[in-house]
Amino acid sequence: MNRLHNKIAIITGAASGQGAAEARRFVEEGAKVVITDLNEVDGKALADQLGDSAIFVSHDVSDEASWQRVVEQCLAAFGGIDILVNNAGIYRQKSLAETDQALMDLHYRVNVLGAFFGMKAVHPVMKAHDGGAIVNISSIAALRGSPGLFAYAGSKWMVRGMTKSAAQDLAQDKIRVNTVLPGLIDTPMLAGNAPEYLEEIKQMVPFKRLGAPEEIADAVVYLASDESRYVTGAEITVCGGMSA
Ligand code: NAP
Question: Model-level pTM greater than 0.90?
């Protein structure tokens, strides 16, 4: 249980769902973690549970200025940044006809600019400390057309594209940048779906069940750890076979 021994990580959107599972797994594996989120109540409660290995920083990923605060607080608490997980995201089910500019802007600001600002903010620190690992969370909705998810799927395609370009740009600074593409994962993000709809989509998964947040955390630990030291620009789908 020491795969992230001595590593210092920032995980965005970590008050809930997959980000919270990642924060727990990272601490189990020996990391120090900065949990960031808009949700202060759950974020602080999780940091308290994790004790000296975690702090919570209130953070809107779409606000570039607030990233400087996150970086400063991470350096002040733990003295470095080895890992960034750009996990925070929003999801609205709307078709092209139902999507307006405000919904496009919202997905762009949180899912796209949020990951971009994060990579920009940690880059100089990682570069000065001999490298690091960035894991961006996309979605299997970004592997092909996704009906009724126009803005969301478009934003997650951008995450894939940014990750591959960043992997090329940051390789010289020993910073690896990879993507995890979750399938249908049992988190509050899916809670807005009707139970009948969830049952219907479960039947489309070869494993006939939703994924657990911990199953995404396992893939993120691999990409964040030195076990993946020769892996950059890669994509791991964790989806019970849905993208096969
Ligand atoms: P979740 O439980 O809703 O967690 C997302 C977290 O991000 C929430 O705590 C949310 O806070 C926070 N957040 C939203 N906007 C933010 C912002 N501007 N700044 C900082 N934090 C913000 O969902 P999840 O399933 O764990 O999602 C994690 C990632 O996986 C997302 O990128 C999502 O798109 C991706 N994903 C999820 C699934 C799935 O089936 N669940 C599938 C594929 C990909 P609030 O609760 O306050 O909004």
Answer: yes
